[in-house]
Design a protein that fits this description.
Blueprint: H1 2-7, H2 9-30, H3 140-148, H4 154-158, H5 162-168, H6 178-181, H7 184-193, H8 196-203
Amino acid sequence: MVMWLQENWVVAVVGLVVAVVLLWFLFGRTRAEPAETPVAPPAEPRKPLEPVKPDIVAAEPARFKPVEPAPASIAKAPPPRAPEPVAATPPPPPAPEPDIAPEPVAGVANPEPAPPPPAEPAPPPVAKIDNLQLIKGVGPKMVALLNGLGVTSFQQIADWTEADIVAIDPQLGAFQGRITRDNIVDQAGYLARGDKAGFEAKYGALGGEL
């Protein structure tokens, strides 16, 4: 390549110049030329405004419309007022009647109110009848004596106090002293409560059913 340039340098120089000219031509044409600003033509001087002449119109004679008399207003009569309500007068209270006792009739005694009838006594409560022979030491004869005294249940005997025992014991005849000796009151307490197990644990097997 270098040898060719040494031999043909004239051709290379000419080619280079041609290339530079072409480039200048191409790039110089594409460069945008500055746009010229349009110059507005000078404005013509305005003529002075001429005054506008008014059109003269012949005036017509005025026409007067006769004024009609206003109709006389008819005064309306005010509506009649409603009568005011009259307060109802309460009737006067009745005059109290004088307390005048009836005059006694001669020869006739004033009847007195009959006394109320006496209240009937309440019937005595019916005592429960238990098998008193379930108590150890109480037989048929002693049961008959107790029934004669009004004792028919275990609860009655369980409620006896020392005073009751002192009053009842002499009335038992041949069985006197047995109430305390056989613990009849304590036995009756177990039986009145229905505590069969407690009774049998303390006094032995029960001789029947409660």
